[in-house]
Specification:
The protein has 69 residues and is mainly α. The chain has helices at residues 3-17, 22-29, 33-41, 48-57, 62-65. The protein is built from five helices and no strands.
């Protein structure tokens, strides 16, 4: 599995664990819901700035967000 898909699955897993919808995460990050969906599907190459926004919104560290196999 490619890194984009792995990172997208990680975002989805963490978001779901915190019971946040894609719309809710979009609101917390200032990103569009479609962008969040694209990230989770692994079709969007996410920037480090947006990775940081997602980590902050999920109240986790960058390293925790990037822990995937």
């Amino acid at each position: 599995m490619a890194i984009l898909q792995k990172s997208g699955l990680r975002v989805r897993e963490l978001r779901s664990t915190k019971r946040i919808t894609q719309e809710g995460l979009a609101e917390l990050t200032g990103l569009r819901r479609q962008y969040i969906g694209d990230v989770e599907r692994g079709t969007k190459n996410i920037s480090i700035v947006n990775i940081a926004k997602i980590a902050t919104a999920l109240e986790i560290t960058l390293s925790e967000l990037l822990k995937f196999k």
